[in-house]
Amino acid sequence: MTYIRSALARSSIRGVATSRVDIVAHSMGGLIGRWIPAHGNNVVHKLITMNTPHYGSEFANFCVSKRGSTFASRMSFIRCPIDVGAIDSLSTNDTARVNGTNASHLRVHAIGGDTSSGEFCITEVNEVVIPLACHYYYKDLGYKTPDDCGSHIAAAMLGPDNDEVVGLPSQFGGLSGLATDTESGCGGAHTRVTESRTYSDRATDLLDTPLSTTSFAVMPQAQRHVRSSIGEMATASTADDQSLTILSPANGTAVSPGSSVTIQVGGGANHTITSIAVFSSDQNAIATGGGPYRANIVIPAAVYGSYPVFAVADTPDGPISSPVITLTIASTATLQNLVVNPVDPVAMRGTRVPVNVEGFYSDGSIRPMDVQDLTIVSDDPTIAAVTQKGVIATGMGRTRLTIGRNGVSTALTLTVIAGTKPHAAAH
Question: In whole angstroms, what is the distance from residue 18 CA to residue 9 CA?
């Protein structure tokens, strides 16, 4: 709501009289677009949703069921975390999601995706996703054999009427006819929507389409548990075999960028081990020896923060895996510049001012900065006050905010206009 109010305030300053916005939203963004008017904020004129799980997602149920498992940690390695964020709100039985979609006046158009006929997606699932998930990880997922794992994943991701993540009925949310569109083939995959020209062209057309036409309709309140083929993925139970153990380094050990680290692996005495490999997010290495096994990995030179590592052993009974350990990469790069966006924000009096800052470092990396780690000074605290909760727009006018860290600083000019603090439900 803060961003919407800021956009409306900017339009007002520029002489454009408007009090409402049109929203084009992908995935969970569509639920947020419905949540806003459902909680008494009459600022949404029309809503266009793309592959939004209005009824929730069976895949989200699967992710919730795997929370805390070794498999969940490994999915983070390929930048596909399945147990963080608002995953609970996307599950089929989430009460908050259902209650947050009761906007009886909001008119919506829903665009959905059906990838079951997409040849590229079929090839990708069969040749990339299934081997990645099922060769080493089928036991983590609770399957007895890699083939059993592969058949379930193929049925889930390539089954009819889904976009590999969300079922088509959920994407339509009860709408039908001209108030819906379906993108068939791989172009409708959930993860490809934001780069799709077809979606963006259709959204552009709908933004120019009058709200009174049959292209828009009132979407009924969301339901619970509308099952799709994605639910096949949730049929297995987690069965991590943690008899394999990383002996050193210890979990949480600090390492330097570019350094070589020896991983020692032990355990697995009740198995006949034929080989052991050590995996990280960007590499793998074959271990040698036998008491313990050892493998060397090289820490990336331009990475900082958490760096997960785990080991997998091949046995005649199938692979077994170790628990994940996390190394901490302490970057030696120095902060060179701070960039704030936007540089001239507009806020309504009584609201909190978003401060988005990125740090540019000597190793070429760009990192989002935590506001708690920044020093913020207001030239006029009667207009903008710096508190433990952030920057608060306290009075009307313009003031300069200076933002710094480790001797590097930048600044923005804040304009505060008349207004009242938004209702608590909008936060």
Answer: 9
Q: What is the pLDDT of residues 366-399, one digit of tens each?
A: 778 877 788 999 999 999 999 877 889 999 999 9
pLDDT grade for 260, boundaries at 50, 70 and 90? very high
Q: Do residues 151 and 37 share a domain?
A: yes
Measured distance CA(380)–CA(384) in Å, rounded? 6
Full residue range of the structural domain in which residue 355 is found: 335-426
State the amino acid at position 18 in one-letter form. Answer: T
Asked whether 246 and 310 are in contact (CB, 8 A), the reply is yes
Count of the separate structural domains present in the chain: 3
The DSSP letter of residue 387 is E
Taking the C-alpha atoms of residue 383 and residue 395, their distance in angstroms, rounded to an integer, is 4
What CATH number should be reported for the domain holding residue 386?
A: 2.60.40.1080
Question: How high is the pLDDT of residue 316?
Answer: 76
Number of Cβ within a 10 Å radius of residue 324: 18
User: In the structure encoding, which two tokens stand for residue 2, read together?
Assistant: 């803060």
Whether residues 391 and 412 share a domain: the answer is yes
Residue 319 corresponds to which amino acid?
P
Tokens standing for residue 237? 């139970």
Residue 373, burial from CB neighbour count under 10 angstroms (0-12, 13-18, 19+): exposed
The continuous run of DSSP H or E covering 245 comes out as strand 244-248
* CA distance linking residue 64 with residue 82, whole number of Å: 8
Instruction: Let me know: does 216 contact 288? Beta carbons within 8 Å.
Output: no
Do you know the residue count of the chain?
A: 427
Task: Give the tens place of pLDDT for each residue, 307-362.
Answer: 878 887 877 766 677 877 888 887 778 889 999 888 788 888 888 888 888 888 88
User: Do 319 and 406 fall within a single domain?
Assistant: no
Same domain flag for 223 and 275: no
* In the chain, % of residues over pLDDT 70: 81
pTM here is 0.54
Tokens 């304009």 identify what position?
A: 415
